[in-house]
Description:
Layout: E1 4-8, H1 14-23, E2 27-31, H2 35-44, E3 49-50, H3 53-58, E4 62-65, H4 70-80, E5 89-92, H5 98-110, E6 114-117, E7 120-121, H6 123-129, E8 132-137, H7 140-150, E9 154-161, H8 165-193, H9 198-205, H10 213-223, H11 233-250, H12 255-269, H13 280-285
Parallel strand pairs: 1-2, 1-4, 2-3, 4-5, 5-6, 8-9
Antiparallel strand pairs: 7-8
Helix pairs in contact: 1-6, 8-10, 8-11, 8-12, 11-12
Amino acid sequence: xxSSCAFLGLGVMGGPMxxxxxxxxxxxxxxxxxxxxxxxxxxxxxxxxxxxxxxAVAGAEFIFMCLGDDPDVRSVFRQLEPKLRAGMxxxxxxxxxxxxARELGDRCAKAGAAFLDAPVSGGQAGAENGxxxxxxxxxxQVLARxxxxxxxxxxxxxxIGETGAGQLAKSVxxxxxxxxxxxxxxxxxxxxxxxxxETRVIEAISKGAxxxxxxxxxxKTMVEGEYAFGFAVDWMRKDLRIAIEAARRNGARxxxxxxxxxxxxxxxxxxxxxxxxxxxKARLDRDGDGGED
Length: 293
């Protein structure tokens, strides 16, 4: 069964996701703030249509957004809001705040439409391979309608709870990743300073309790000092800011997350804002005191 979809935002995540919808046979109209990027997407996504935002969403049953931050979502939603009608479903794949998700949910409901906050995990590779993990907040019956469509780019779709719960779950995801990457960076840094063969060390520990996705996929590039893969530090800091702000409101204590956030600020200060998140090791390896204050 095919559906009429609008996809707003064709970045490193949104572009491949929209492409998978086309490959799955859905009718897809796309919009991007940079028109050239939308045209480039259309050249490799035969069957997808580039349209102005209001035209893209006007006839869509499902409207997907994959943008940068809360201000971007607010701006785009303000433009599509007049086109909302009963039965439409807006799915926001942006990593943003739970507060904004609740606000947009209320605004959609006033128009008779539905809203799901559905941030994703899996990075650029997951988007390109159609293997994303999706954390969803909102009505379970609405999710049941759109889930068959979302499967075009997802390997796991989990309903977390009410509106906003998807965004809060994504914060949990980023909190966990921050700690794991810092631990891996310190372990590899220690191995190097101790004169160990990192390949043998990873061979030994990667089958035990220390194993992680980050270890499996990033240890070698971290050792080689290559950080042009996956999720950028600038975006990770945005996500950690959202998590830390939410923690201040709900009373959660995130001492390690706050510390790693500052470590990422150091990476940014060194010009590594576009490096991927494994670049925490670069901070430790730089000349001087090993990156410690």
